[in-house]
Amino acid sequence: MTARTGTAVKSLTIITLMILAAMVPLLNTPNNPIVAEEHSFEPQSLELGERISSYTGGRAPCPSVQNDGGTTGDAANTTNTTKTFGTDPSSQNVPGCVDATDTLDFFSVTLTAGKDYTVELTVPTGADFDLYLVDSNVTILESSEYNDPLESITFITNSSNAGTYYVVVAQYTSDGGYSLDMWTNTSVARPDLTVSSVSGPSTATIGGTATVSYTVNNIGAVALTSSTPYDIPIILSTDTTYDTTDTVLNIQITGPNLASGSSQMMSSNVTIPSSLTAGSYYWIVWADGWDNVTESNDLNNNNYSSSTTTISTSGGTGGDMYEPNDSIAAATTITSLPLSQSNLSIHTSSDYDFFAVGMVSGVTYWYNISFTHANGDLDMDLLDSSGTQLGYSAGTSNVEAIQYTPTSNITGYLDVFGWSTATNTYALTIESSIGGGTPPAGTPSMSVNMPDKFSATASLSNLTTGASYFLDSTLYEFYIDGTSTNTSLPGMNWTASTSTYTHNYSFNTANIEGQYAVITYLYQNGLFSDL
């Protein structure tokens, strides 16, 4: 790493991301079991990642003779509980207590058809308790987490799901007495969204697009109008059941307005993420996946394709999103500059990555790749259409760079390859001097935006045209169970052709609740730059 001397300016940007309730309704599915075994209850979080608790605590404030549910005794921690709320109950200030040695209270409740059953849990100050409604198989039907001091759930019954269920209070941190309020009211007419006829292509490529077809239905008694907006997430899954290992595609699809009993056929073009692992995937389409609409049944909103789509790297050859681009004839055409792309690769000893760039006479172009040299020596040539070499870079550092100014309008072909049999991953930048001007004064500034736990964007301004820059970034993951890890992201090296620059990162993170941060350092002309 460059010594932190000279102008010695430090650029440090930390972005943290709590993985909270962004996906709660989407994961609200009866196929998300809770394990109840040997008097233990391990609720799977209905969020991105599992809610992990060490159940630590040095005190147990619940009395030896408890009054859970308003009657003498402790509520059991399984569905074998003898505590019951009865049929279609409406009760307030129902007491209970959980602590470090008594972490779960189960209460049975019987619900008839056509009811709205609402439960509110008031949590003592400083504690974190969670509220669930489960069935006899201990499968989560409704949940409320992270909303202390008031957790709330509502379950709507119909002719097919009336029966006996279990209200569960779970201690997550701290301990103490709680109270439950509940109401059972006759349901009003509501819409009810379902999905049918889901299909996708037989094959698709990573980084490419695919068309998914499906039908959205409103089988409820009330219309869906512009006053009840909702979205339709699309998911790639290796099986037909959604879980946290599946991939929710980065696309926003607005659901249609539907009269009662009506349907609409839809078709959506989606992009296959470059981070996806090649394989066979089902398409899961989830109407109102974020639970914006109150429906008569929230458990029937998703459906899956009857067959899988085989998703491979481009051309089936393996490698990165631009493959196959192994020759001048197959070169990836770069239509706009500047270009900044990470997660590229020379994936075999015979792989070449060609990029075609239309170059204007008198304009200077900078081609840079950055990689970890110890993992494989990458080099590059700049060629014209006949294969004549215009420039090359074949060093022994973590960066290769070519600068070229054509004397006529030509198409240049950048060829990235491994020395001898080397393979490696790399990041590529291509820039030009078009749009340059007087070098900006002062020191650079930088911000990093981390919209989710899979990506980040570094935005820089006040750069000096012609100066060389290097971004050194690390992803930090701090899990709720107290463990942590960090990963060095691919470094970015470029020569500034304008006063601004943007670089996008993509990465995989664990499906665990916690804090996620990207820390980025900027080097200017080989010196550690202070922002």
Provide structural commentary.
- The chain is an all-beta fold and 531 residues long.
- The protein has 4 domains: 13-17 and 436-528, Immunoglobulin-like; 31-186, Jelly Rolls (Sandwich); 193-312, Immunoglobulins (Immunoglobulin-like, Sandwich), CATH 2.60.40; 332-432, Jelly Rolls, CATH 2.60.120.380.
- It has no helices and 38 strands.
- The protein is elongated, with a radius of gyration of 29 Å.
- Helix content is 0%, strand content 46%.
- A hairpin with a 5-residue loop joins strand 26 (378-383) and strand 27.
- The strands form 9 sheets. Strands 1, 33, 34, 35, 37 and 38 form a 6-stranded antiparallel β-sheet that branches.
Key features of this structure:
531 residues; mainly beta; Immunoglobulin-like; 4 domains; six-stranded antiparallel sheet; disordered N terminus
Give the SSE layout.
Layout: E1 13-18, E2 35-37, E3 40-42, E4 84-87, E5 91-98, E6 104-111, E7 115-122, E8 128-134, E9 140-144, E10 150-156, E11 163-173, E12 176-186, E13 193-199, E14 203-205, E15 209-218, E16 234-237, E17 247-248, E18 263-271, E19 279-286, E20 302-304, E21 309-312, E22 332-334, E23 339-346, E24 352-359, E25 365-370, E26 378-383, E27 389-393, E28 399-404, E29 410-418, E30 424-432, E31 445-452, E32 455-461, E33 468-479, E34 484-488, E35 492-495, E36 501-506, E37 514-524, E38 527-528
Q: Which shape, going by the Cα principal axes?
A: elongated
| Sheet with most strands | 6 strands, antiparallel
Which residue ranges are poorly predicted, with pLDDT under 50 across at least 5 consecutive positions?
1-59, 435-442
Average pLDDT works out at: 81
Portion in beta strands:
over 45%
CATH class of the largest domain: Mainly Beta
Return Rg in Å.
29 Å
Task: Tell me the CATH topology of the largest domain.
Answer: Jelly Rolls
- The second-level CATH architecture of the largest domain is Sandwich
How many discrete structural domains? Answer: 4
Helix content: under 10%
Tell me the number of strands. 38
* Helix and strand composition category: mainly beta
Distance between the termini: 18 Å
Number of helices: 0
